[in-house]
Design brief:
homodimer; alpha/beta; Rossmann fold; Dehydroquinate synthase-like, alpha domain; 2 domains; 6-stranded parallel beta sheet; two-stranded antiparallel sheet; 8 strands
Chain lengths: ~400, ~400
């Protein structure tokens, strides 16, 4: 097992109706003047924003509002948020929404405390030393940003999507009410589930041996997702299934299922260029990329893929032909994604095979290799995109 | 799923040689004058204490020392520690040892900030509102106290063992170096492993339905323990196995495997009276009690015990006779405990069946019932002790 630090200081406040307590938690974690940050109209229409404001009012906490966060959140709104926070003396940012809103809130939080351009953190020019405290009221199980120290922002100029990370931007508290997710359309629910599974798979495929505990924790989350996702697709109001998925989404990405070993984030990397170029949902892009990445790399460690096939998808282990089990597991994963309504190739996603050179160019691999479970050259990445373009059941 | 809060703010610093960094973490979490709290001579003899002091010296942090913590740590030393902290202006307590040392450190930490008798917290007279910060350098994988908000102390007068808990006493950081556990005798290693498994089982047997994610996380830890414990019994220097067990011990008790549902702590409760009366190792007492408790309660939910048997111990599921699978699982658990050198009945533990009325009296159930998976009357507790007294393979 490799040496590691695990630090997840967020207080998770889980369950029915817990959003009415967010004022109390803002107070607990030192907020007195809040920026409520949110996306489109659904937080307003559903009455959630009214509840959040009432909760802040009850604690005598003042607030400003900034809505309009888009999926694949943009730098332009972040700059606006930073200016607003500075001019109004904001000391706490409350994100009401999903991963895009939380990531935008984190970007504002770090930007307010930094003299330079916040984009410095996303292009690797500077490290996040300080940030305003962030709280969350989560409305979709997907990104895991409610428990992570990460943020992904898209620079509108050139649609460049990049990530930044630090323990300093981990939310102080996150309210997780599964009931808030019952009104989500099936497509968004499935995109979220795909993202959650991808967060685990990116940690599951490792070159570090004998980290049994992390393997088993990964499988715990994956098995849960395989069971619970079809249940919510069939019955959107199934609270128990929604609750299992919501908590699985947090556990998948707060770090606990990835400790002590190397990871692989190439599927996320390859997907970022897809959603950057086509503005498609991140989960949908992952559904197209991840099984294709698996097909490209599985020979690197057939037994690990066979283990996944057997333990996660219940495939029979063929002891005389482990490769057939490994391949069957990847096939089952793609079938599972299709069964919950996800696209499985470029056409279904709205992408074009002709754009592959553009996608590869934007990845910026050059003559080098992308680090991971299997190191990938530019041509390897092109091949994975080609597999994804032509994939079928 | 029941509503819950999950809050585990401890920074875990895991791996080879990490104890040399503890000065830096004391500084990070605000300590400037430290009480180093430890047990017997092993922390001194092994050179660990010297390393810890060098690490504090390197940061210019001053310290006092208080050794002598016994297994089943006593109130008498806690009082001494509280006086010492007050007279020397201590602002941070660093526990170097296992669960007993950490629990004693937590008791001192809460006592220093409280005007009354610290025992008030353990007999339910008062709530822990404030405590000095505590840090940990862990030397045995067992109690999980390095990541928990709990402490168990024994009142010397009458040998009464009681627990107290609060998020305020969760360690700020815990250094976990698996190498420090390689020199542990096999018996202590096995006691620790039993305690870890018990922490998970106490959370596994629940009356709340459909919390798939928590079930699977529990099983992840249990499967890991079943695999890794025999490996370290056979080869005490197996670092990878030691590492898996050490991290499993933390995950087992920081709360993550118990969220969203009812739990059962009756095996711990019944064991506390055994180690209180006989001063036996907590893990050894649990090895005797827990399978006996299982035998007494399993009919309450045969399918849950069958699930445990199949998923944790790999028993064949007999679909036409699930009870036989359930019973087989309990049998396998007891055989497993025996195989790692644990006692399985009163005689092997050094306890006497004649004392059962005394044990039951000390439990203080009276005419009421102990809350849990199955509620237990005084007579039920006596019967579990009788099963434990006479157990065999």
């Amino acid at each position: 097992m490799d040496n590691f630090n695990f630090y997840s200081p967020t207080e998770f406040v889980f369950g029915r109706g817990r959003e009415t307590e967010c004022g109390r938690y803002v107070r607990k974690f030192g907020g007195s003047k809040v920026l409520i940050h949110y996306g489109g109209g659904s937080a307003v229409k559903s009455g959630l924003l009214t509840k959040v404001k009432a909760s802040l009012d009850a604690e005598g906490i003042s607030y400003e509002e900034l809505g309009g966060v888009q999926p694949n959140p943009r730098d332009t709104l972040v700059y606006k948020g930073i200016d607003l926070c500075r001019s109004r003396g904001i000391d706490f940012i409350l994100a009401v929404g999903g991963g895009s809103v939380i990531d935008s809130a984190k970007a504002i939080a770090m930007g307010v405390c930094y003299d330079g351009d916040f984009w410095d953190f996303y292009c690797g020019k500077s490290r996040i030393e300080k940030a305003l405290p962030v709280g969350v009221v989560l409305t979709i199980a997907a990104a895991g940003s409610e428990g992570s120290g990460n943020s992904v922002i898209t620079k509108e100029e050139g649609m460049i999507k990049r990530g930044a990370g630090s323990d300093n931007i981990r939310p102080r508290f996150s309210v997780l009410d599964p009931e808030l997710t019952c009104t989500l359309p099936a497509y968004q629910t499935a995109c979220g589930a795909t993202d959650i599974m991808a967060h685990v798979f990116e940690r599951y495929f490792t070159n570090t041996k004998e980290v049994e505990i992390t393997d088993r924790l990964c499988e715990a989350v994956l098995i849960t997702m395989v069971r619970e996702t079809p249940r919510v697709i069939k019955d959107p109001n199934n609270y128990e299934a929604r609750a299992n998925i919501m908590w699985a989404g947090t556990v998948a990405h707060n770090g606990i299922v990835g400790v002590g070993r190397s990871q692989d984030w190439n599927s996320h990397g390859l997907e970022h260029e897809l959603s950057g170029l086509y503005d498609c949902a991140h989960g949908a892009g992952l559904a197209v990329i991840m099984p294709s990445w698996m097909e490209f790399v599985y020979k690197h460690d057939v037994m690990r893929f066979a283990q996944m096939a057997e333990r996660v998808f219940g495939c029979a282990m063929h002891y005389d032909d482990p490769e057939s089990t490994a391949v069957e597991g990847i096939k089952r994963f793609r079938e599972f994604l299709h069964s919950i309504g996800m696209p499985i190739n470029f056409a279904e996603l709205g992408a074009s095979e002709e754009d592959i050179p553009v996608l590869v160019e934007k990845l910026g691999v050059g003559d080098g290799k992308r680090w991971g479970f299997v190191q990938l050259s530019a041509e390897d990445c092109a091949e994975i995109y080609r597999i994804a373009a032509r994939a079928s059941l």
